[in-house]
Structures are given as C-alpha cells and as structure tokens.
Amino acid sequence: MRVTKLLHTRYRLDDLERSVRFYQQVLGLEEVRRHKSPRGSELVFLKAPESDETIELCHFPSSGPVQVQADLTHLAFEVPSLEAFGRHLASLGLRYSDGPTYKPDGSGGFAFIDAPEGYEIELIQRSPVASAGGATH
After folding, report:
1. C-alpha 135: how far from its chain's center?
2. Which residues on adjacent β-strands are paired with residue 124?
3. 97 pLDDT exceeds 60?
4. How far apart are CA 125 and CA 117, in angstroms?
5. Beta partners for 101?
6. Which of 47, 77, 79, 111 has the most CB atoms at less than 10 Å from its CB?
7. What fold is seen in the domain 73-137?
8. Which residues contact 81 (CB under 8 A, 6 or more apart)?
9. Closest by alpha carbon to 8, among 37, 38, 39, 44?
C-alpha cells in the first residue's frame, strides 16, 4: 500500500487574516474553503491557479505562539519571470529577500521572499532568462 497524491500542506499562524491577504495579494492564490475544525482551529485553504494541492493556513491560539525557525521550511511556486515578479513585488512595496539567482546557462533561476510570521517562499523560473545573463534587482 502507498499514498496516491499530496493533498495539502499546513502552516500554523498567529495572524490568519494577515497571511491570507499576503498569499492572495502577493502570490495570487485563491481561497477555496474556510472552516473551523472540531478542536477549534480556524482553517483557510488556498491554491495556486494551476495546482491541485492546497495550502492550509491554521490559526489555533490555544497551542501557543508560532515561532518559525530560520530555514525551517518553505513553499516553492513557479513563476513565468522572476524579473516581472520582482516588479510586482515592488508595486506592493516588497522585494526579494534573496536573489534572484540565475543558472549560468540562462535556463531559469530562483529567488525568495519572506511571508508573514517568518515563513519563506521560493519563486522558481523554469524557462530561459529573457535578457542575456539574467536581470538582477
């Protein structure tokens, strides 16, 4: 017997609505459902437009404050262009926390942004870099 597919990944948060806004406004994720669990957790499920898997954001104050260690975990999302996504971040008053870093052959690259509460988000560009040598910010 084996599992058949990944359904969701859970992140616990202190400020649920702040994080929901971040994932919707910055990353463009869609809220697909919201409910309270039998034990009292407030849960919001979000997904990227071309993905089946969801992210479960959980607010459960009675379990204590959330303390995310540096480099503990991250979510990775594909973007068509790191340069264009960097401009999108700038329009929101944000910037990459690391990168972008492009492969020497120009076949793509990656960068990171910080989500609320210390979670890290990786953005991956799989297609070739549009400008020679890659754009940097």
Report:
1. 22
2. 78, 110
3. yes
4. 25
5. 110
6. 111
7. 2,3-Dihydroxybiphenyl 1,2-Dioxygenase; domain 1 (3.10.180)
8. 125, 127, 130
9. 44
Note the pLDDT of residue 135.
Answer: 43
Q: How far apart are CA 51 and CA 133, in angstroms?
A: 30
Q: Please indicate whether residue 122 is annotated as part of the active site.
A: yes
Q: What are φ and ψ of residue 76, in 5° steps?
A: -120, 135
Looking at residue 137, what is its pLDDT?
Answer: 40
Q: Are 95 and 86 in contact (CB under 8 A)?
A: yes
d(CA 85, CA 126): 13
CATH number of the domain at 1-60, out of 3.10.180.10, 1.10.10.10, 3.40.50.720, 2.60.40.10? 3.10.180.10
Strand pairing report for 54-59 and 8-13: parallel
pLDDT tens figures, 42-89:
999 999 999 999 999 999 988 888 888 888 889 999 999 999 999 999
